[in-house]
Amino acid sequence: MSLPSRVDYSPEAAELLLKLTKINGPLMFHQSGGCCDGSSPMCYLKGEFRVGGSDVLIGELVIPRMNEPVEVWMSATQFEYWKHTHLTIDVVDGRGGGFSLESPEGKRFLIRSRLFSDVEWALLENSPVQTGA
Amino acid sequence: MTDFIAPGQPGSKVTYASRYDHWINGEYVKPDSGQYFENVTPVTGKVFCEVARGNAKDIDKALDAAHAAAPAWGKTSATERAIILNKIADRMEANVEAIAVAETWENGKPVREALYVDIPLAIDHFRYFAAAIRAQEGSAGELDNDTVAYHFHEPLGVVGQIIPWNFPILMAVWKLAPAIAAGNCVVLKPAEQTPVSILFLMDIIKDLLPPGVVNIVNGFGVEAGKPLASSPRIAKIAFTGETTTGRLIMQYASENIIPVSLELGGKSPNIFFNDVAAENDAFYDKALEGFTMFAVNQGEVCTCPSRGLVEAKIYDKFMGDVTARTKAIKMGNPLDLSTMMGAQASTDQLEKILSYLDIGKKEGAKVITGGERADLGGELAGGYYVMPTIFEGNNKMRIFQEEIFGPVVSVTKFDGFDNAMEIANDTLYGLGAGVWTRDMNTAYRAGRAIQAGRVWTNCYHAYPAGAAFGGYKASGIGRENHKMMLDHYQQTKNLLVSYSPNKLGFF
Question: Does the keyword ATP-binding apply (chain B) (predicted)?
C-alpha cells in the first residue's frame, strides 16, 4: 500500500504554479517559519534555495501539464512540530512573502492544514523522510 | 468622526502623494520599468497611492549613489554625524502626530501606539546613536615598551537593509540610525506591504542628510530585495523577517563573504508563577495587562507573547481575569485614540491568521474567547480585523509552535519551575520571553534558564534604546537597539606600530 501524501495543492495553486513555471522555469517550495511572512510556503526557482541535511523533502507536487514535479522542503526541526498534519498549498490574494516568486502576481501561497486520520498516521508515523544531504 | 482625520481628507495632518518614486541620491527617481504597484490601507482595504516597482537596475542606481556618497560621509566627524542625527530627531518630534497618523494609515495599528510608542522610540533611537557615536573611542594597547596596537573604528561602506511591515518606521530607524551614525551609506528596501510611510518620513527630514547617504528602493522581494541582498556591492546585509528568507540571505551573503544580521521572529513564552495572584493589588493588575500584551500591534510583533504559561494553582482564577481583560479590548477605527486594537496589516496576513485559527480548532485547542474574523461594519467593513483570541491547549500543538503574527495567544498550564522552563524552551525560537513573579530569586533563575535574547521580567513589550534585542536559536543573529550594534556596522582597523629603531636580527 502506498503512503498517503503529506502535502497537496489546490486547483488555484496548480494554475499559479503553471504560470510561474512558464515565466521562470522549474520551481521548488521551502516552508518558512518565524516572523512577518513566516509560516508561508516560499516558492523559488528550483535549486535557488540550497537544501541540506537539516531539511526534509515532505513531498513532490505532480501537476498536470508540468514537466517536473515541484519539490516541497521544510527544515527538519520544524517538521518535527508539523509532521502530524497534512498540508495543502493554496493561494490567496496578497503581496509580499520574502523573495517568493508569486508576489508580483498579486498572489500569495498559503498553507492549509488538517490532522492526519488515524489510518494515514499509522502508515506515516514511522516512515522515513528524505533529507537534502 | 475619528480623533485624527484620515489622510487625504480635508483637515488631515497627512497628505500622501498619489504616487511615490524611489528615493535615490537625495531626489525622487522614476522606476526603471516605468511600473508602479498599488498601496492599500488595511483600515478600509482601499488603495491610497501608487508605489514604484523597483528592479535590479533601480537597486544598482541606488548603490551607485550610496557608493558615491560613502567616502565623504565616512570621513565626516562623529560630531557632525551626531548633530545630524539629533536634528532628525528634533524634526520628527515636531511632526510626531503627522508621522504617527501616516504610519497608522499604512499599517493599520491603533494610532495611540504609533503616537506614544513607535514614533517616540524612533526619535529616541536617533538620539541614542548620536550619543553612542560621540562617546565611542578607539583604543591604544601598549603591547611592550616599543610596540603599540591602535584600534580604529571604520565604517563598512555601503550596506543593505530590508525592513519588515509591522513597524514600518521604527524597524527602519532601528537599522538606519546605527548604520549612518557609524558612517555608512544605506540602500533600504521597505516591505511591499508598507512602502511609503518611510518615504513620508524622508520627505520631512530630507534636507538634513547629504544626498546618497540614505536611498530607498521599493518593490517586490523577488524583484528588488533579492538583487539588493545578493549584490556584490554591499558590505553587509541586515534583514528582519522569517527563517527561509533569512537562510536565503545568508546563502547570498556567503557568496560575497559579507556579514549578515538577522531577526527572524519567535514564539515567546509569557510565564505567570503562582505568587502573581497572591494579592489583588497593582502588581496583579499589571500582570493581567502583561498577559493581554499579545494584542499589542494586533499581535504583529516578533516578540508577541503568544504562548501563555500559567501555573496550575492560579490557573482558573487568572484565566478568568485575563479573559475579562481580553474581552474589554476595544477594536475600532485605528485613527481613534481610544481604539486598542486596529487592523491586520494586509489581506494575506489576515488569511494566514484565519488558517491558524482553523488548525488550532482542528487540533482540539479550546477557544476561550475570539477565534474569528471581526466585522466592524460601516467604512471599516472592508478592513482586515480579527478578534483577540485566547486558545487553551498544549505546547505540541502547531498554534503553540508557529508564529501566527496575529492577536492570538495559546495558553497552557504548568506545574512548578522545572516544568515551566521545559515548556518555555520547547520551541525552535528564542527571541523574547516574559517572567512574572513576586519572588526575585525565581525571576532571576527563570530569566537565566530561558533560551531567549530578551527576558522581560515583570514587564513586557518595552523597547528602550540601550537594552540589547535579538535572538537565540532560530530567531536570528546579532543584536539591535544597543550601542553594541555599532560593531555590526563597523570594521576594526588595527595599526600595529613599532617604535623601536632596532632590527629583529633574523635577516
Answer: no
